[in-house]
UniProtKB/TrEMBL annotation:
The lineage of its organism: Bacteria, Bacillati, Actinomycetota, Actinomycetes, Kitasatosporales. It comes from the Bacteria. This is Phage terminase large subunit family protein.
Amino acid sequence: MHGRVPGAALFKAACPDCRGRFELAASALRLAIGGSRRTTFYSFTCPDCGTAVRKPAGERIVELLTGGGVRTLRLHSTV
């Protein structure tokens, strides 16, 4: 438990490039909520290879990430 905040959420993630699997703290993730499923996603930087990863986020993922304290950006439609 060294270096971890008690009760802090960790999220399992994987990198599509290097296929690394790891756990990330909420501070390592970003969530963007858009007006549609195509524009709602989460992103992170792979700690193994440094690749910027972006993955779609459905309703359940959005609930888990926001509940776990992940920083959220709400994208507003220009229409």
